[in-house]
Fold 2-dehydropantoate 2-reductase.
Amino acid sequence: MRILVVGAGATGGYFGTRLAQAGRDVTFLVRPRRAVTLRERGLRIIGLGEEEVITPQLVTADELSSPYDLVLLSVKATTLEQAIEDAAPAIGPKTAIVPFLNGMAHLDQLNARFGARPVLGGVAKILTTVNDDGDIVRLAPLATLTIGEQDGRPSPRVDAVHALLDDAGIDASVSTDIVAAMWHKWVFITTVGALTCLMRGTVGDVGAVPGGSGLGPAILAEAAAVSAAAGFPVPEAELATTTSIVTRSGSPFASSMYRDVMSGRPTEVEHVFGDFVTRASALSVATPLLDLATLNLRVHEHRTEQAALERA
Ligand SMILES: NC(=O)C1=CN([C@@H]2O[C@H](COP(=O)(O)OP(=O)(O)OC[C@H]3O[C@@H](n4cnc5c(N)ncnc54)[C@H](OP(=O)(O)O)[C@@H]3O)[C@@H](O)[C@H]2O)C=CC1
Ligand SMILES: CC(C)(CO)C(=O)C(=O)O
């Protein structure tokens, strides 16, 4: 199976490396600057007391000519439009696309561009980031992938991709309701994202101050109400798990969006938050805390854009 990983960043770099280490035929579609770094340093995964490096097979958009069997889409929403166009030559009649993005709107974008047939749903749960050297840093052991057909039916191609991931030692599972799984992850990411970005602190930082421990559950209640109104109620057990994650005393846990904010990088605010509160409003669900988080992140985004313009 020929595999193309679109984007060799925190998520794609990690999962693509695992597949390459297992001897799979993996190519990373990268932009020219990333290609330079990866040719110089290799694709390195560090953290949790380990350091691994591979010499990745790379391709840039101008070199991409023939279809791949599997495309793992691991760019941020902010660069999705261009990435879809760049990856288009890799999508043929038999290609399956698995997106790792948080949020939901990318499914519509992919369906609109390629038709729904090649597009699977995907949920990535992993804590990784890219450091200044371009290496992928693992922040915690969590690294799972869930995949499934958008319409939930069992399919040989989903089983084949699952087997491929599993054989590479990736903790992968198949969902017969991947759209619900994506919504549930969306609830999780908006909750943790709003909590840590609004408070500019980790879960532990927020919980350490009087009144802090109530905020996570309050945001979760809003987000879960939206998901339920959209037809995807979050199971009680998952709500309980998320509640314990966002209230755990001393926890260093934070979302990747928090790390983006703290590093002055752009965020996926419109894809992850803007779209969520727009849908909440259309469903007549009040989301005052999520609205505030959205506004807060939009201010960050505006400031980041202004700074980039001044540098240019
Ligand atoms: N990091 C995490 O812990 C998690 C992230 N997610 C989600 O996964 C998605 C991806 O995030 P993440 O991996 O962290 O993002 P990163 O920014 O770390 O990686 C994205 C990569 O995509 C590359 N890229 C962008 N456009 C193109 C293009 N046209 N062609 C080739 N490469 C391109 C970027 O390259 P360049 O270097 O050139 O900018 C970058 O290396 C997001 O939606 C995020 O919310 C989900 C779970 C966990
Ligand atoms: C919350 C987490 C780490 C789960 O994968 C995530 O998706 C993110 O930070 O973007």
